[in-house]
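Hi V.,

You were right to ask for the full record rather than a summary. Here it is.
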Amino acid sequence: MPTDARGELQDGRFDYRAQKDGRVVVSWYGRAVVTLAGKDAERFLARVAGLEDHDAQLLMARATGNFRRGNERQGGRNHV
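Predicted structure:
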């Protein structure tokens, strides 16, 4: 699995929630970023099970797409 070379995922900025209908919602600072359904949701849940927090953060960052490129805006919730 790739590493977090800049150490930016130490604060637990990503979270996920599995819903009753089988979908998985991945959030960034509490905002829903991507919803996985079907085989993608099953694959994600199988991969994230048993991972330590930092490795789970890396997996969620990759699942969101644009967040893995490192070109997202800095500042998060406090961005003006």
